[in-house]
Amino acid sequence: MIKINDIDSYYGGKGSPGTYQSIINHIRPHKKLIIPFLGNCAVTRAIKKPAEGIIGIDRDINVINKWKNMNFSWITLLCEDGISYLKKLSRRNLSDTVIYCDPPYIMSTRSSYRNQYMHELDDSEYIQLLKIIKKLNCDVLISTYQNALYFCHLKDWNRITFNSTTRNGSREEVLYMNYTNEDGILHDYRFLGDSFRERERIQRKINRWVSRLQRLPAKERNAILISLKKI
User: Which range (102-106, 146-150, 197-201) has the least confidence?
Assistant: First the structure.
């Protein structure tokens, strides 16, 4: 995964092993990805680049400038308020768009009750954010720690949990989504698996099947591939 100079240890950046992978494993196909709370977002740095690129938004000009210094041609960087940006999208057609929100953790869920970001959110801003994302007509995901505020406002959303490594040990992350994905269709399949060992096992299995297909006569291989598309 690409590193961002000086902000790799950014609080809540989702860069710990198994964290960004777990999130990417729930993101469906899309052409544009919007990240309203950019930070050093590991999902942005790791995911397969969408056809129409990524829009990264952060109120902290220092964060934006550090991303700009990396010269990522596929990312449009905006220094503005993520909640205000999302509010402008509430009436737009957002087909082929995914929005992944990773706002600051609610203060009461943190191991240290102190400011970690240049721009923190208060409860009224969290409520505003949650009301706005419920109105968006596209796939929306939002990360948090367990808390009653999110649970109350997003009780109808799909919800998964997984363990994440932090500076102070393991914490349970919660990922809310306004959709289900029973068909298992993803934008990026490279991180399948709930652990490093399982990801290795799945990748070995993929490599074996690809190798077998490549050794078949071309017509047989094509017949199998066409049959698989019908499943």
Answer: 102-106
